[in-house]
Amino acid sequence: MSKLFDRRRLSLLPLNKRDNRVDIERDAIRPEAPALTMSKRATEQTLRVAEAVHRARADGRPVIVAFGAHAIKNGLAPVLIELMNSGKITHFATNGAGIIHDWEIAFQGQTSESVRDNQDAGTFGLWEETGLYLNLAIAVGAYRGLGYGESIGSFIAENGLHIPSADQLESVLADRHLARWNRAAAADLLDVLGRTGIKPGLLPVEHPYRAYSLQAAAYAARVPLTGHPMIGHDIIYMHPMSSGAAIGRTAEADFLRFADAVQSMSGGVYLSVGSAIMSPMIFEKAFSMAQNVAIQDGRRIREHVMFVVDLAEASWDWSTQGEPPTDDPAYYLRFLKSFSRVGGRLEYICADNRAFFPALHAALA
Length: 365
What we know:
single chain, Rossmann fold, 10 strands, 12% strand
């Protein structure tokens, strides 16, 4: 059997020693700010997105927005929060990096290290507070029965964590009347706490910039924000506090919440912005699950509209030409191919998310 890397050997650095490229008070994009210019085509398409969103919400249908981490790094949380508070968005989904950048902004007002420089120095991703607090919040969230995004959103919104005592966790483990997942989550948290000197009770962690946190705002508004991580993709898995069991427990809960939202997609809108892998991968699986149940109930999910926004120039019109042949490079664009196979209407918009989201906000307003 091959050896496992021993994360206890890592030398971790305090987060406030890291140089960051994003300062949220400087870089935040406000809903009322003039939008960056887009092409005439992208502008017209954004108006169609707004029309589809208005129609869906008027009919009580969902508007699900999935986005990559750059939406947070680009300072767009204030725009997304305003769209949510206006009732236009019913569900957010992001990847593990989106969760991390949002938390770092809430915690210190800055995020985004230089990967190139820090890789060379052997420090990339090895930041004590990010790894410690997010892994602990996930383990506590799993014990509370929360999802991945909700675990971090509640941590930010509540400015801390309630840490159960070892005796409390041991009593849960010993209670055979409880569900297995309750006992398993208690065992996971007991294991995580055993690696720290953290005492039971309230662990206060201030988040002075939480007004910029989409996760905290979604948690407060009770709008689902689901996190869809992949182990090995995010820096918190480098930290010795990382618990694969707790991560899997919360991430699976979020995937099932996402799939439940997709069940109502008939006449709804799915907006995928800057997510070439996560968004199409979770949507195609969730849609298949939802369609399977719908067919058993004597109906089908139809008339859903999907808008995909990214920076790549389109070489193929997926909305009119369908799926390209396998000898065309466009066939291998996963973020379009997956969406083209789930029925409904698909439209691709070539735009910068810093231009698209404010333009959408203006069009909806």
